[in-house]
């Protein structure tokens, strides 16, 4: 009986020791797990297979990880109790996600991102704007008859193939604006290219948004971002109206610290204006505004600026030069859709620009799908391929060594070019696309990675 009691006590003690040991190992593993930065989600084999470039650490990430390792090492040296090491390390290595994103990112003012403030909802606007976008008919009535008609019905049914993490938001909501600024900063973009119509004007599905500009500027400044303007093709846009609108923008917003000015090769700091659909106005009209001898010339005045034209067809490059523009951008996120958006044409466009003292600003995008508003336009869809399409576009852009890269877009949800956070959603018969197997911020992460890659390569170009 004595031997049996001894053996029973021994077994109990052994089990207790084993259980404590397992708990200790688990606590250590939990502590080590929290040391992995949020980006480590890309470290799984499946993710690396799809996005092999993400195996390369950026300088900022290396620095962040090294500092975390130093904190861990110092803690081990100072503290003798292993359990308290685990607890302290867990507490020390769990900053809020937003704080971590901002610490890992700094704005890159050579990365410009197109941004839209035309969204509205009943809470802030009294009704839905743009989320309820109509289904656009094909121009051929015979084809149009084969597709549905009508409008979308938010909040569950919106005019987009993806669904935003922030829901069917209003662009007037200050919390939304701030969330967008945090996302753009986390992506290491630096300049917001703000879609803009003159006061009292808007696109056919929206309402005037010029009164939002001061708020956008204030929040941009809070996050060290800059704002420039994407002049949309408003009614009767010509040399005279453009002169007045440029004057209006510079007079009203030019003194704000977030107002973007680009340093030119001559050392001047000039505002920059992207001009969407510039090709619909003939070169002679633009030349009135943009050449020194033009009848409406803005050159060598307090309102002089860098004007960037949209290039769609190859012939537009000659029109852009004759018009007096300072450069060209390609906007569309559809490789092969137009001459300008086709990656293989960027080298020749860059060579043309270099020989004519023009800026070439290629536009990269994560993909394209607009069948939620143009159900007949399947042939222009560009699958994201879990980020590979986006990375291919960045690779093509870096090959031509551009001074600026533009990104289409932060939140053009109708055309599926957004890098804003999106989430899976299924409602009724509608199943939205999503970013799985990755997280909602995958395209912000990819943008941040390529921003750092661009910075490193640019240093080599300048040597």
UniProtKB/TrEMBL annotation:
Leading EC class: hydrolase
A GO MF term: glycoprotein endo-alpha-1,2-mannosidase activity
Membrane topology of the entry: Single-pass type II membrane protein
Localization, UniProt: Golgi apparatus membrane
Predominant location category: Golgi
Enzyme Commission identifier(s): 3.2.1.130
One CC-aspect GO term: Golgi membrane
The entry's keywords: Golgi apparatus, Hydrolase, Membrane, Signal-anchor, Transmembrane, Transmembrane helix
Family that this chain belongs to: Belongs to the glycosyl hydrolase 99 family.
Protein name: Glycoprotein endo-alpha-1,2-mannosidase
């Amino acid at each position: 009986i004595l031997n049996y009691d001894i053996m029973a006590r021994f077994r109990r003690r052994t089990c207790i020791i084993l259980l404590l040991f397992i708990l200790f190992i688990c606590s250590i593993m939990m502590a080590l797990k929290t040391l992995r930065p949020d980006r480590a989600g890309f470290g799984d084999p499946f993710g690396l297979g799809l996005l092999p470039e993400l195996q390369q650490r950026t300088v900022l990430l290396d620095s962040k990880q090294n500092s975390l390792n130093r904190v861990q090492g110092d803690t081990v040296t100072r503290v003798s109790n292993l359990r308290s090491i685990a607890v302290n390390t867990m507490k020390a290595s769990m900053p809020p996600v937003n704080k971590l994103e901002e610490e890992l990112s700094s704005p890159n003012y050579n990365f410009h991102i197109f941004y839209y403030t035309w969204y509205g909802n009943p809470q802030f606007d009294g009704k839905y704007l743009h989320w309820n976008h109509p289904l656009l008919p094909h121009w051929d009535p015979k084809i149009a008859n084969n597709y549905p008609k009508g409008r979308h019905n938010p909040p569950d049914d919106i005019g987009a193939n993806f669904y935003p993490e922030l829901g069917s938001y209003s662009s007037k909501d200050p919390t939304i604006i701030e969330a967008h600024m945090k996302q753009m900063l986390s992506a290491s973009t630096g300049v917001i290219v703000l879609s803009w119509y003159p006061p009292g004007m808007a696109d056919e599905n929206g309402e005037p948004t010029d009164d939002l500009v001061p708020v956008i500027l204030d929040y941009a400044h809070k996050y060290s971002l800059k704002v420039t303007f994407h002049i949309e093709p408003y009614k009767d846009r010509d040399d005279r109206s453009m002169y007045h609108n440029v004057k209006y923008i510079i007079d009203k917003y030019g003194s704000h610290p977030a107002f973007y000015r680009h340093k030119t090769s001559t050392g001047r700091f000039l505002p920059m204006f992207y001009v969407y659909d510039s090709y619909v106005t003939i070169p002679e009209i633009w030349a009135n505004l943009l050449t020194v001898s033009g009848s409406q010339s803005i050159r060598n005045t307090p309102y002089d600026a860098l004007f960037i034209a949209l290039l769609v067809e190859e012939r537009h490059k000659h029109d852009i030069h004759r018009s007096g523009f300072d450069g060209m951008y390609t906007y569309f996120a559809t490789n092969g859709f137009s001459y300008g958006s086709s990656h293989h044409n960027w080298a020749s466009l860059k060579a043309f620009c270099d020989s004519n003292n023009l800026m070439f600003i290629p536009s990269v995008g994560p993909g394209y799908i607009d069948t939620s508003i143009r159900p007949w336009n399947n042939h222009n869809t560009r699958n994201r391929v879990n980020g590979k399409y986006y990375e291919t576009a960045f690779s093509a852009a870096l090959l031509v060594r551009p001074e600026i890269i533009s990104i289409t877009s932060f939140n053009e949800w109708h055309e599926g070019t957004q890098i804003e956070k999106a989430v899976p959603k299924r409602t009724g018969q509608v199943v939205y696309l999503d970013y799985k197997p990755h997280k909602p911020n995958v395209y912000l992460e990819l943008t941040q990675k390529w921003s750092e890659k661009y910075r490193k390569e640019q240093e080599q170009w300048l040597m």
